[in-house]
Amino acid sequence: MSGSPAVEWRDVVAATVDGLAVVDRVGRFVQLNPAAVALCGARREADLVGTPSPFALAERPTACPGLLEDQPDEQVVHWVTDSGTRREFAYRARDLPADPELKVVSFRDVTDEGHRYRRVAAIARTSVALASEGSLGSTLDAVARQIVRTDGLAGVQILILDSTGRELRLMGSAGLRRWDSFLDRLLECRDRGARLYMLDTLRERKPIVVPHRWAEIRSDPAWEPLRDYLGKLRWDSFVSVPLMVRGRAEGVLNAYFAPGQDIGGRTLEFLAAMAEQAALAVDYATLLQRERDGARRDERQRLARDLHDSIVQQVFSIGMQANAMGVLGARGEPVPARAVQSFANEVGALSRTVLADLRAMVHELRPSSTIQLGLTEAVNTLVTSIEHRTGLEFQLRFGRGLDTIDPELAEDAYRILAEALHNVVKHAEATSVTLRLGVHDHTLTASICDNGRGLRGRDERPAPSEGDWGIGTKDRAEGYGLTTMRERAERWGGTMRIRSRAQRGTTVRVVIPLPVQVSEVPPAAPNTPLTVPLQAARGPSRRGC
Asked: Which of 429, 394, 423 has its CA nearest to residue 504?
């Protein structure tokens, strides 16, 4: 406006909320406005002049714009202040007309914006994982990894209740070393008087925040069995979020925060959203298991019908033939040779058909019936049958505690062992097998070791001459049988490892932690909302030392 005093550009630069900096051709700060000094975490401009800036000053920016970015020349860099705070700057650089050796850079702090974007992306990737991962364990591992990567947490564990609602199983984790005895040691800590806040989460069905939890554990003698294990993780505070499925708390998501990390409302909302994704996975797995159980019952009913419609009828025909021959013999007259031969041929054909049908059905019917007699007896019966059929020599070593295993777990363990022994018979060309099975430190452990040729040569595809295949590994040489074994172990939070050496045999080792009794969690009240209420995510209980 004419007549108005001119505004000094120096005053405009000093008042702008965006950072403005002049940088030389090698990327060092030359001059900064007050906003730039504050964004970089410095007290004075002089503390930054002459120091390297974080900005890449290429002639043509190569960074791709973000999904919602409408200015493709804006790039993002990271900057760590003297106090250790990590920030993200979005910036643009332009040549300074007055001096071609210098560039002017405009930048702003997009740390929170980038964090929100990564959280949304993590939730989206987790949703995809629900459909793409092969089992509940691998899905919950993926959820835990996404949380750790997105928010930089020290570690995450996801534990779920079994169908009875009284036993906890560790099904997913990230950041913490996998330890088969973790639940056993946790149970020991509880028995020594340690307070498990995740049980409060299950009971109250809302998130619980415990600031400085590690300091509390470190000074509590009741936590001695787990102190060394938890001490290897660099963490401070603890948050436990319930997994809500159809109004019931079906598990917990435990988050371990690194020292200095803030546990604000948005962080809790993110954990609640990820817990909801984990709960969806648990619900889907439960429904799928029910569907499989129903299919199993239908299949057994079908086998019963087949048994009645084919084998029973054939045995009845054999009986009728025997009765007819008895009638002929009762007459006291010689029986023509042709009639005897016809009878023998027909009875022989019927008996062969019956035997073939029975053999086809026995494999499907045997596990469920023998598991009712106990896992030890079932495995003994299976091994005896294989010895008689193949001549393999077996050494069986059973430990204690097998009679305490849940029947469903016992059936899965039996099927894993049966498939492993089937592979030995079919592929290994072995002469002897050692089978060990027992419960130690609240963990079911099984191993099958043969002296065969190893995995090399199977289907003419190369296998490792020496090494392990972990439970999460889906090697291209892994067939349907191995995949089924691995999934059965993973269903219970266990692991399966295979070690093989060419011409020196193969060892299959399965380790399944037994569930921990949770007697303190009452049944959930009916008509509870499906998901974690937003007010619960924003206003959790806070309990200190």
From this structure: 429
Name the strands in the sheet holding 248-257, side by side, starting at the edge strand that comes first in the sequence.
516-517, 167-174, 155-161, 248-257, 237-245, 208-210, 541-542
The pLDDT value given to residue 46: 92
Cα separation of the two ends of the chain: 64
Length of the chain: 545
Residue 229 one-letter amino acid: Y
Q: What are 66-77's pLDDT values in tens digits?
A: 434 444 567 888
Average of per-residue pLDDT across 531-535: 31
- Torsion sign over Cα 39, 43, 49, 50: negative
At which residue do the structure tokens 């995450």 appear? Answer: 156
φ, ψ of residue 483 in degrees (nearest 5)? -60, -40
Residues 6+ apart with CB under 8 A from 296: none
Among 54-63, 162-171, 439-448, 474-483, the range with the most confident prediction by mean pLDDT is 439-448
Strand partners, 433: 394, 450
330-371: pLDDT as tens digits: 777 787 788 778 778 777 777 776 776 666 556 545 555 445
Over the stretch 78-136, which tens digit does the pLDDT of each residue have? 888 888 788 889 899 988 888 888 999 999 888 776 666 666 666 666 555 555 555 77
> In sequence order, what are the residues at sequence separation of 6 or more whose Cβ sits closer than 8 angstroms to the Cβ of residue 292?
none
C-alpha distances out from residue 238 to 174, 392, 506, Å: 15, 54, 43
| Residue 508, C-beta contacts closer than 8 angstroms, at least 6 positions apart | 420, 447, 448, 449, 485, 496, 497, 498
Residue where the block lists tokens 């041929």: 345
Tell me whether residue 444 is exposed, middle or buried, using C-beta atoms within 10 angstroms of its C-beta: 0 to 12, 13 to 18, 19 or more.
buried
Q: Which residues is 80 bridged to in the sheet?
A: 86
Q: Compute the distance between CA of residue 504 and CA of residue 403 in angstroms, rounded to an integer.
A: 34
Q: Which of 481, 512, 474, 478 is nearest to 495 (CA)?
A: 512
d(CA 245, CA 165): 12
* Calculated CA dihedral for residues 394, 397, 403, 406, nearest 10 degrees: -70
Tokens of 215: 């300091």
* Cα–Cα distance measured from residue 103 to residue 301, given in angstroms and rounded to the nearest whole number: 80
Query: Per the structure block, which two tokens stand in for 183?
Result: 């639940």
